[in-house]
Every structure is written in structure tokens, then in C-alpha cells.
């Protein structure tokens, strides 16, 4: 017969382990560093390690031959990189989680989540985060880029993050706090996309996630249409993540959706992040030309209909 102390020790041990798809390490991480049975802690970047199903992957052999091709004609051995803000970013021990923490369970390829909380297309460029991805990708790797939450206000109203108004690729403005030249969302996005394409990576532009529509009635942000325009101008795939998530939120209703936002109307819980990730997957599989479509292993997601 188990003693209460033994049961308590067992429960504590289980609780100290990260669950599947949960964070298990990274710079500054103070949570669990071991994973539940059947999963392995996989290093994705210096900030984030994730519990993924199965044993630790064997090192990829060095070869100059072309990669094998899985069912569907898509190149094997590729990685998906994520560029974005806190709505995408890895769990940092806060009450919210980005959708990037959940997307891996629906894909057959590893996910390297490079999203950073609080960043915009401008600061992701200025601080070298885009360059980190550009320098890391290999041919046929995929990159989802999703920004928009932190661009507004201009450099005067939103120092370090705000961008110039408009769609010009040549217009500039000045950040009064630093005196530095600032460009438009279009300029930052197109520069990154073109650099990634030059490395033969495949890019998907995703519109920003919606705020809680039952608490925030401000409407559709301008950066949703900007994201679509950037994708069209650079001839890369586009997912209207905003509309797919909004559609699902409306299906679920206020009582359920309000519970997804524990701290504000922008950042979701892990449960909410999974809803947001599923909406992205639906947007991907609804476009057969999307380069990520062949790598979706679980399309049993909500919403069930294409827009």
C-alpha cells in the first residue's frame, strides 16, 4: 500500500516534468527541464527547447546529394522557422503562450520558433533576428513571418518598434528618441523575404492574430491587408490568419473565448494558442499551393471550412 508521502513524491515528480510540446529549456528558463515519458527535450534555439514525441533525433548525415522526397513530392529534411512577436513566441514562463508553441503537433517537420515578444518587423530587423534566420536557413526550409501587433504609432509614438506610415519601399521617417532612420512595414518585410528567397527558402506571410473580438471592437488592423499586399508583391504564400482565427472565435462564442485571454485582450493561454494554431493550419491546407501544405500531418482542425 502506498504511503501518502510516496504518492506526493510521485505527483511532484510528474508535475516537475514538461508535457508534450511544452518548453523544457532555453536561456533564462526556470521551469521543468525533463519531459514526460515518450518525449524528448529538443533544442530549437538558444531561447527555447521543446518536448517533442519520440526519441532524440539522430544527427543528420553530411551529404552533397539532393534530399529525399516524401509522399506528396515535398523535399524532406526541412525545418520551419517562425518570425514574429509574442503572439507567436515560445512560452517564457508567463501566463500566455504564442501559437508557435502548438503548431508543431500538426506538422511533420521540426519547428524552430525564433519569434520574440514585443518585436515588430522593424525591431526584428534592427536587432538582427531576421538575419539570424536568414543565416540559418538552407534550401527548401520554410519560414512563416507574422507581424502587425507592434508596428503602430509611428516611431514618435512607439519608439524602437513603430514604423513609417504607408506602403512605400523608399519612404523614411525618423525615430526622435534615437535619431535613426525608420522605414515602412513593407520595406522591412520585403527586405527579409527577398533575402530568404535568395537562400532558396520558402516564405509564408501570415496576417496578425486578432485581439479578443468580444472585448476589443476596434476592427481589422491595417497590417492585415498590408500582409496580404506584401505577399502578393513578393510572390510568396499568404494565410489570412486573422480571419481564420476570428471565424473560429465567433463559432466558439464569448464565454469560451474570454477564457483564452488571461492577462489582456491580445495574448492567449496555451489552450487559446492551440485554437490559433489550428486556424493557421486550416488556412494552410485550404491553399494547395502553400509550401507548408505537404507537411501538415493532422488536418483535423477547427474551423473546418475554408474562407
From TrEMBL:
Transmembrane segments: none annotated. GO terms for molecular function: cellulose binding; hydrolase activity. InterPro entries: CBD (IPR000254), CBD_sf (IPR035971), RhgT-like (IPR037459), SGNH_hydro (IPR013830), SGNH_hydro_sf (IPR036514). It comes from the Eukaryota. Keywords: Hydrolase, Signal. One of its GO terms (biological process) is carbohydrate metabolic process. Residues 1-18 form the signal peptide. Residues 16-52 form the CBM1 domain. GO terms for cellular component: extracellular region. Belongs to the 'GDSL' lipolytic enzyme family. This is CBM1 domain-containing protein.
